[in-house]
Design goal:
- This protein is of the alpha/beta class.
- It folds into two domains: 221 residues, Spore Coat Polysaccharide Biosynthesis Protein SpsA, Chain A; 192 residues, Hexapeptide repeat proteins (UDP N-Acetylglucosamine Acyltransferase, domain 1, 3 Solenoid), CATH 2.160.10.10.
- 20% of the residues lie in helices and 31% in strands.
- The chain is built from nine helices and 36 strands.
- The strands form seven sheets. Strands 12, 13, 15, 16, 18, 19, 21, 22, 24 and 26 form a ten-stranded parallel β-sheet that branches. Strands 14-17-20-23-25-27-30-33 form an eight-stranded parallel β-sheet, with no helix packed on it. Strands 5-4-1-6-10-7-11 form a seven-stranded mixed β-sheet, sandwiched between helices.
- A hairpin with a 5-residue loop joins β8 and β9.
- The protein is elongated.
- It starts with 6 loop residues before the first strand and ends with a helix.
- 39% of the residues are buried.
- The structure holds uridine-diphosphate-N-acetylglucosamine and calcium ion.
- Calcium ion binds next to loops.
Length: 447
């Protein structure tokens, strides 16, 4: 995207977010595991602005690091969005061009919408401000855009200051503005805090500019979901839902088949290649990468796992941190894997635990087999070489190595290394006493 005029983006994020009932700054609350502020920055960076400046509150060190390497300025007294902009302008003294102001608590605004707002100001030379509005059914809490019959914006009225009649207006301020840098300081110097909150409102700027003969144009967002603000925890979960919708749509458009999109939860960093099929009710935690043409059956849970192409997983499988599953692997129901490499073509089809293991190719790890990786103090490694057959209900007590092609008989508890192509059986001799059960029943029935 090209911006001929220099562009500075100012993000207002100094507010404490009292309505969130949280110790964290509001914009540090996460959507799909990524702080809101980083969702916004990821989009802003795509505009290639000359400056990106975030206004933060005092002591918000985590926020400053989340924003880094971009600049921050500190608003000591949080007395309104207008004052926050004034502080940002202090750091933009020599800047000439467009200033795009965004609210940190409106993080899912799209790059196209931001560009549209910039274009709306540039289209006409007498337009000093463009403001992004939206039409919503329930305008409660938002500033109302008071638009005259000829289409010019007269003023923006905050909820607390609105008359009953003004409250009926359902075209509202999303909080995003594009301003002519050359004039902003002049308008800001006229800002007063005579209103219900006693704050300096950025939303007074259009009216101040109008008094000086400068027009404000209104751009209306076609998609209110992308510009919904976050004031409460309920809003946070609404934004989370929308962020999920964005991810699902991107995957579907990229050729991933999702049978019931609303039941699949993605993380912000989930990566999935084309042709993969995801059945309903699957959870992706952080750091999951799925190859092409994988089949993920219903009710799986993944965190920090890599899955190779053409593998089939689930239903009801759990892959934990450090699982590196190769290609054409079969992981079946009620299998848990942690910090393990599973080689190409291996099968772990039912009821198994594999932890701290390096498993080669074409291994069969049968039903009920487990790696005993923990002695109550330390974790130990299991190595299973190519082509080994680990029978049902086997305990591999780590550290232990099973050689290539070795065969471990069902029920064995293995505590020593097993050489290649050997059979290992650890099982006490079965005893069969003929007629015992019939005698036992008879004695019980007669007593
Ligand atoms: C604001 C707008 C309202 C708009 C709504 C859209 C004003 C006066 N009102 O209301 O017209 O409809 O957003 O969501 O602008 N902030 C600071 N410093 C401050 C105060 C706020 O940096 O002193 C930041 C906050 O961190 C937040 C953003 O500005 O990210 C908006 O502040 P908030 O208090 O949530 O404003 P709203 O009441 O939602
Ligand atoms: Ca808000």
């Amino acid at each position: 995207m090209s911006n001929k005029n220099p562009l500075a983006v100012v993000i207002l994020a100094a507010g404490k977010g009292t309505r969130m009932k949280s110790d964290k700054p509001k914009v540090m609350h996460e959507l799909l595991g990524l702080p809101m502020i980083n969702w916004l920055l990821n989009s802003v960076e795509q505009l290639n602005p000359d400056r990106i400046l975030t206004v933060i509150g005092q002591g918000m060190d985590d926020l400053a690091s989340a924003v880094s390497p971009h600049e921050t300025v500190t608003q000591v007294k949080q007395d309104g969005t207008g004052s926050a902009l004034k502080i940002a302008m202090g750091a933009l003294q020599d800047f000439n061009g467009d200033i795009l102001v965004l609210l940190g608590d409106t993080p899912l605004i799209s790059v196209e919408t931001m560009q549209g707002l910039i274009d709306a100001r540039r289209q006409r030379p007498d337009t000093g401000i463009s403001v992004l509005g939206m039409c919503i059914d329930n305008p409660y809490g938002y500033g109302r855009l008071l638009i005259d019959s000829d289409g010019t914006l007269r003023d923006i009225r905050e909820e607390k200051d609105a008359s009953d009649e003004e409250k009926q207006v359902n075209i509202v301020n999303t909080g995003a503005f594009c301003l002519d840098a050359a004039q902003v300081n002049d308008w800001l110097s006229d800002l007063v805090n005579i209103n219900a909150s006693g704050e300096y409102y950025i939303t007074d700027l259009p009216e101040i500019a109008a008094r000086k003969g400068v027009k404000t144009s209104v751009a209306i967002s076609a998609n209110p979901k992308e510009v919904q603000g976050c004031n409460t925890r309920i809003n946070l979960s609404e934004l989370e839902q929308y962020a999920q919708e964005i991810m699902r749509e991107e995957f579907i458009n990229a050729g991933v088949v999702i049978q019931d999109p609303s039941s699949v939860y993605f993380y912000h960093d989930t990566k999935i290649k084309t042709g993969t099929l995801i059945e309903p009710n699957v959870y992706f935690g952080g750091g999951v990468e799925v190859g092409a043409n994988v089949h993920i059956k219903a009710f799986c849970h993944f965190e920090g796992a890599k899955i190779g192409a053409n593998t089939v997983i689930g239903p009801f499988a759990r892959l934990r941190n450090g699982s590196d599953i190769g290609q054409e692997v079969r992981i079946g129901n009620f299998v848990e894997i942690k910090k393990s490499e599973i080689g190409r073509g291996s099968k772990i089809s039912h009821l198994a635990y594999v932890g701290d293991c390096i498993m080669g190719k074409d291994v069969n790890f049968s039903c009920g087999a487990i790696t005993v990786n923990y002695d109550g103090f330390d974790k130990h490694q299991t190595i299973i070489k190519d082509g080994a057959m680990v029978g049902s209900n086997v305990n591999l007590v780590a550290p232990v190595e099973i050689g290539e092609g070795a065969f471990i008989a069902a029920g064995s508890t293995i505590t020593t290394d097993i050489p290649s192509d050997a059979l290992s059986v650890e099982r006490s001799k079965a005893k069969t006493i003929k007629g015992w059960a019939a005698n036992f029943r008879k004695s019980k029935q007669s007593s």
